[in-house]
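Dynamin family protein, Brevibacillus ruminantium. Tokens?
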Amino acid sequence: MVLVQTHIMERATDFALLADRLEQMASSMEKEKDEVTPGKLLQLAAKTREVELNIAFCGHFSAGKSTMINTLLGVNLLPSNPIPTSANVVKIRGGEKAARVYTHHNGVLTFDPDTEMEKLKQFAVDGDTVEWVEVSYPGTLLHEQASLLDTPGIDSTDAAHKIATESALHLADVVIYMMDYNHVQAEENFNFTKTLKDRGKPVYLVVNMIDKHIDFELDFDSYKESVEEAFATWNIVPDGIFYTSLAEPDHEENQYEAFRSMLTQLIDNREQLVSKTVRDAAEHLIEEHVLVLKRENAEKRQGLENELDGLHAADIDSHDGRQVTEALQAAEAAASELTGRVDQARKHMEKELGVLLDNARLTYYSTNEAAEQYLESRKPGFKMGLFFAGKKTEEERQRRLEALLADLREKTEGNLDFHFKELLSKFPEKFELRDDAYHTAVYATKIEMNADFLASRVKDGASTREYVMNYCSDLSNGIKAEYRRAGMGLIEQVVSMLKRKTEVEGAQLQERLRVLRELAQIHAQLQQLAKTEQAAGERLQAILREGA
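Tokens:
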């Protein structure tokens, strides 16, 4: 069974407009110092303007390409051995009889295709480099807008031959891949045809010389199944498979006529096929151009990659741009936090100290009673007893003073001092600091309350209940003021420790930031290279779709 797929475009193509766009693309590429791809695009544009269909014959030297082409044409235009040119691509088309040889050094040379093909071969052997051979011949299945391309064998050891085949494929609308019956499953067959299919080329396989088949070893249907399965294993779905024999035209499995009919159908559907394949070829040439840009940037890209190798930041892969960006953002946030850490810490500790002092209750009913007794003892005319009044009065004053001090000390010890030392002692831990001397200083803090302290808060005035309450409030505020002063001094010690720690961390962080910023800058340059390459491709895609 012959597998054939038909390629038909849904709407007519304005080939002149498409050719203009290809030329615009070539001009854009030339500005980017691409010395190869623009030329291919201009060739494609010229072919598009003429709506020329090119059918390329590829395969092994031994597959019989030249013989098959001569048979299809009905005239021996190609020698049985390939023309030994450095390009070795021969284009055959319909039209007036002529053979033109495009050389690198002697311009275009003309030969008679009926009588001078051997002369052409000798000319090439003599040393001039032939770039392209074009033969026109009337009376074949071809016309002026339909051509066959005979390419070198893909198994050639001559690198120039392989390059020639590759360089001609952008002009091929269809590829006929010919294989010798005995060499179908050669690896280069699969590699080459898969490359073509991946590029969107219509590919027809021709298994030639099937007269070599020996039926009693394997029936022919099983052989065909093995061929299809082999290509399917490589995920290759050809557009058609033909089995041919030129040595035995009457071979019962020979599909030469079906193959020739398929070529005629392709030629008849020339415009629809060219419309699609030209666009596919242009897409591939855009990819080639981007690869050229990547090669141009390769040295710079490698230099940047080497710079990445020379820079190291803990916990990240310097070649991973995402990791570098995330690490830099984290480091910058840490640096910002570090800058305000000391002030934030001071404010935080001062606030907690303030809350503690504001909520500490130091005076109760007993305090008020003791304060009232104390204030009464300080009034002029205060006197105790009739006998020995002076001594008794002084003793009573002292007793009342000690009573007030004892009450204040008790309330302060239970309601403030304990909590004060508990709070201040834990401040360093909140900032991952440890200092035994500081801890000792906190618990050594002692606020003295003595006679002078009590006396300094006494004001002139009547000893009313309101006055007593105000006096107790002044005592409480005075005690809290002393604790606040002591607390602020301890907080400054914590701040000093935190400053020293922050300076060390800051130096380390600044070094990390330096490395990360260098890495980020290198990645930005790598990204810019990639964006430039991507933008070039997108710009060419836009020209292909919409024009400049």
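The beta strands are 53-59, 90-93, 98-103, 108-111, 130-136, 146-150, 174-180, 203-208, 240-243.
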